[in-house]
Amino acid sequence: MFSDKKNQKPDFSKEQNKISQGTTLTGDITSEGSFRIEGELEGNLNIKGKVVIGETGQINGEVVCENADVEGKFTGTLKVNSCLTLKSTSHISGDVITDQLVVENGAVFNATCQMKGNVKSLDDERKGTAELKKTKATQ
Fold it and tell me: What is the pLDDT of residues 16-62, one digit of tens each?
């Protein structure tokens, strides 16, 4: 009946942070919100929201986020829990781990890429076929 708003944590997931063009930041950043990089970041970025690396943006380090759109340059390890979109002006080097990957024509992608998700191996497929044959044989 009565709400206890004093004990509720504020929701920072809708907050937008920005490193502007002409700014260079060295260090590690952790945030609940999203980030837009138009300048340079030398370090690690660990956020729960979306990362946008603008056309003038550049990151050297490790990024962990939910979604990412890359228009600029990235070098390092990029871990995206959901969807990574590489725009035509993007330059990626390093290691990429993501669930979904969208690459526009013209994007430069010099990275090892590991796709997460439900990947079936040939052994799993063969076992399923063998079990199906066994079931039909006993009927």
Answer: 889 999 999 999 999 998 999 999 999 999 999 999 999 999 999 99
Mean pLDDT across the chain: 85
Q: Which residue, 18, 17, 19, is CA-closest to 32?
A: 17
- Between CA 92 and CA 131 the distance in angstroms is 44
Question: How large is the C-alpha radius of gyration of the chain?
Answer: 21
Q: Say if CB 109 and CB 94 are below 8 A apart.
A: no
